[in-house]
Amino acid sequence: MAFWTQLGLLLWKNFTYRRRQTFQLLIEVAWPLFIFFILISVRLSYPPYEQHECHFPNKAMPSAGTLPWIQGIICNANNPCFRYPTPGESPGIVGNFNASIVSRLFSDARRLLLYSQQDTSIKDVQKVLEKLRKLGNYSG
Asked: What is the pTM of this model?
């Protein structure tokens, strides 16, 4: 049987079935039209408004590493919208969280955990505290 013959018989069968089921045919035609008119009424009652182009801060995926992923969740919890491109939108940049509190916390923890005898930062802090005490005693 040729393609056009099969198509013609299938359309004839469909038309005959639809003609016998008039209520079902009305529902199949009226239901999409009803939904379409609801969408039109919602669109007309709430007209669109102009909004600037929106750039969201980048958020690292878990495959980028645990620290960038946690920073992406914590630092961008409110998901702000910016008018201009954010620093992390450049290709190859995992995160722009270098100055965040979480980043400083992890870098300080890493420095303390990897503390060596050559690190003089604690001695420097003690010197600064001594000088502050002397300054406080001198001015008081």
From this structure: 0.33
